């Protein structure tokens, strides 16, 4: 999908293009039996994703660092759809302890799990460390979702086996994965304050999302699990992602990108496609843009780097029990 396709809204192989919205993608699809977790669903494309899922009957679980924000999102959805099933739980993706507690809280609900949407993300304006001592972008955008997915995977595999309905994991990545250091992810420099740049810090965390997707897809296939995983770029959207920016370069980049910005309903379309549309049945390990499969960088196709990332992530998590 090129620039002309983007501006014309050209519909690709899926039947959808850049002009599609989450509502259009989900049209006619019943989700009455589905339980879905959507991280980052208190605002922006995450909220729109949760809203449309709830509209179509899904039981939506909204995790949030601030429970009052999750409750506000729940109330907003239920004002529009009084019968909507929405559950809120506490989760701070930058903290491995919080991720583990969220999974315990979710499992205590005794619900199945059909779809996991790792949508939450952040862009750190300055170098910061997570509660576990990892650079904050990488901790929040990759390490938290990595652990969350690992701890919920057995539940998803079990649900798919019992229901015969394929489970789906969706990773919201970014075209920002193109802006990384020469080595892609230099694991020994993740916590190097002196080399920190906001754009490459964000970029490597989004590259990690795509590599995580590819490696996980391979492992799920080896297991024979009836669960797929795909990643996507939602488009350039004016959301709260860059709310902490005060660097001139960041503000300028966002200003220049304004003419290319999608609306929030359009930004949620590709997520919705990967999560619920029948055309994605059996598709796994792919990267999508404007509701269609897209190309990504050589780093994002490097399975050796993907394996290294997996090993690094597992070792980091084991060192923070």
TrEMBL record:
It comes from the Eukaryota. CDD domains: retinol-DH_like_SDR_c_like. SUPFAM superfamilies: NAD(P)-binding Rossmann-fold domains. Pfam families: adh_short. Transmembrane segments: none annotated. This is Uncharacterized protein. It comes from Selaginella moellendorffii (Spikemoss).
């Amino acid at each position: 999908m090129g620039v002309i396709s983007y501006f014309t809204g050209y519909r690709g192989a899926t039947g959808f293009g850049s002009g599609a919205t989450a509502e259009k993608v989900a049209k006619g699809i019943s989700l009455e039996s589905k339980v879905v977790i959507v991280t980052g669903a208190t605002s922006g494309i995450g909220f729109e994703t949760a809203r449309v899922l709830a509209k179509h009957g899904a039981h939506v679980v909204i995790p949030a660092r601030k429970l009052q924000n999750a409750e506000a999102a729940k109330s907003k959805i239920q004002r529009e759809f009084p019968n909507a099933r929405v559950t809120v739980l506490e989760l701070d993706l930058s903290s491995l302890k919080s991720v583990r507690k969220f999974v315990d809280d979710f499992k205590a609900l005794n619900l199945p799990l059909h779809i996991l949407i790792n949508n939450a993300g952040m862009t750190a304006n300055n170098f910061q460390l997570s509660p576990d001592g990892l650079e904050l972008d990488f901790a929040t955008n990759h390490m938290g979702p990595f652990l969350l997915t690992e701890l919920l995977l057995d539940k998803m595999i079990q649900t798919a086996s019992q229901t015969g309905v394929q489970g789906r994991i969706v990773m919201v990545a970014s075209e920002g994965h193109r802006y990384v250091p020469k080595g892609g992810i230099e694991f020994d420099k993740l916590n190097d304050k002196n080399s920190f740049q906001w754009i490459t810090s964000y970029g490597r965390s989004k590259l990690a999302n795509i590599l995580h997707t590819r490696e996980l897809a391979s492992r799920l296939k080896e297991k024979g699990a009836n669960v797929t995983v795909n990643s996507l770029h939602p488009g350039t959207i004016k959301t709260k992602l860059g709310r902490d920016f005060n660097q001139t370069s960041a503000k300028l980049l966002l200003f220049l990108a304004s003419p290319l910005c999608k609306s929030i309903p359009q930004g949620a379309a590709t997520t919705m496609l990967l999560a619920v549309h029948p055309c994605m049945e059996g598709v796994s390990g792919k990267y999508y843009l404007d509701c269609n499969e897209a190309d990504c960088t050589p780093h994002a196709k490097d399975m050796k780097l993907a394996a290294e990332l997996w090993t690094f992530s597992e070792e980091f998590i084991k060192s923070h029990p």
